[in-house]
Fold this protein.
Amino acid sequence: MFSVLKNRYEQGYRTCSYPKEKPAVFGRYRGKPLVRQDASPEWVEICANACPQDAIDVQQKKIDMGRCIFCGTCEQISQGEFVRFTGDFEIATAQKEHLLTAGDLPDLARHSKQHFKSLFGRSLQLRQVSAAGCNACEADLNVLATPFFDLARFGINFVASPRHSDGIVVTGPVSRNMRTALLQTYEAVPDPKVVIAVGSCTLTGGPFSGSPEITEGLDKILPVDLFIPGCPPHPLTNLHALLRFFK
Amino acid sequence: MNAFLNISNGEKLDRRKIPHLAFADFRENALEIVGKGGKVVQFFAYPDGTSLKLLAVLRTDRLMVAGCDAPGSYPSLTQVSEPFHLFEREMAEQFGLRPEGHPWLKMVRYHPNYHKAKDVFGNHYKEDIPGNYTYYQVEGNEIHEVAVGPVHAGVIEPGHFRFNCIGEKVLHLEIQLGYQHRGVEQLLQGVQAKRLPILAENIAGDTTIGHSLCMAQAVEALTPVQPDKGARIIRSIALELERLANHIGDLGALSGDVAFLPPANYFGRLRGDFLNLSLLLCGNRFGKGLVRPGGVRFTLSDEVRKTLNERLKELKPQVEHVLELLFLASTVRARFEDCGCVSPADADHLGLVGPAGRASGLAYDVRRCFPTEHYGELGIPENKKTTGDVYARARVRYDEIHQSMGIIQSLIGSSVETKTVAASDLNLAPLSFVVTLNEAWRGEVSHALLTDNEGKILRYKVKDPSFHNWNGLAMALRNTGISDFPLNNKSFNLSYCGFDL
């Protein structure tokens, strides 16, 4: 018993004060990309060719955050001449076309569905469906339940049954073998329901695009309300998305 | 004298030097090696021109390789020697090769074979449900079945578990995976070079570094790009950070499953702190973006090294105290001990690897037996336990957490210099073969790469440690109360996507 108390004292209070204050993230973290519109076409071309995800739109000088895995290859080879990844983790969007960006993201709260706010603003129960991801997105959703993020303090929980939930949070590129299970889970959620796509795989197929075994974008098979980019999205990206969209 | 050829971990071999045996000799030699305690590292089929060939990499205290022409059907090796079991099923699924007399010939991942050969399992793949299969059944009036998944109650990967129980007692657990199948091996063989590291990182995100190292070392063996000493040190640090985050998370989850909540919460938070150390190093909590053929993309600058040192100094006593809290609690021991035992003999037959193997008396650790990166310079202890229960699997992690923190602290004591590398085109040596092994946190990860006469990737074979260990979980559940399933499951904490590929 003494040991329990001693540890409790040592652990202290660990919950972050987000969204009141933004917690510091280590400097090498790659969040929202900022594209230089004055970048020379040569640099844009070089970066586009080197991008393993083919996420760079050469004509518009924009990055598709749905395809991007935030590896930073373009930043590294152009040494910031074309793009710089900022420490801004607030990068979720309500519309897929907003993912194609030069760094100016529309305010998520203004683009969210207003009736969701009144329905789910005070209590949101979500069912997570892992559909062929690498388990990193799942892991960084799971940590939202740990004391640092403490998702439950916002009235948001992950629940065991789709019948008890207000929507689904999908991760992974929806393999052929998970498609039926995913659609059945969606069907089992009572209306009105929310669909949240988490991670580059779910948004576009991500690293697995081109494989006949997967779906290149969850929005091809379900109506997606909230797009959270990243590989995986930082837990704070997920937290921001849920709070801005529903609160 | 055995006909298999001795090779080293990560050694480039001219494919023409791989002993090409008659199938009967291949079978006899492979069975002899494994019969004397050897294990299967890789056993797969690959197309070579118009013909199909088999290749096996086995290990004793050495690694060895041999191949043969693939017969359309052949007398199963599994009926004599269990460690071949899943490999033969995988070959049947991938290439339609039928192992005659295989004791349990069922699909692995549920996909049509690559060669449009007649389906060995009689599946038509019009329904996208891997569970399209008659499960093993126990008969009797008092028997009941419990079916769980593919969508589980928690935030975890999909898989189907079928329990045959009498009362609370599990007589048999059958695990059906494949829901996560993304066609990774096929993609690896066809994509542009720039996508290779990205795919390797995403085979299993919690084992990003383990799989990335296998890929990078394989490419480095077949190209002139080589990592310098600093890069090897940084990659070793990254692998140990990955081990720490996962082991700490697992012990927290185990604690939660026996309803001892303080360590569950503390370890949950501390796991995140270790993930953040990977982010400190490379900008990603899972180490994605760090390892590339030829080295690393981020240096261990003195500033990063200083922060890493400070954070470790702060976290280490906290981890140690929570470990004490967990392991000194008699209520925890009462639940961990004698729960889900896998005997050393069973573990040996199944060929378990990693902490699950070490918990059942199999000391094998790639870092010690076939060291890569900086591990040759580090003394890795055996970490072997004998009881094979949940307690032993937790205790291995306890030991390794202490060791990994020590290893990282010793490696960041002085400055580490390296040049960063960027992605580049790969000119792989033609007609070559390489196999790489690394001890990731779950155990032996292995990649094998074969090139054709133009240096194109002819076959890329991936094996996650979970490929060996899922049957260990099934074995642990025998005669165990079904309510102890979550505890046992966490004590193995296997990868679905690593298995499903």
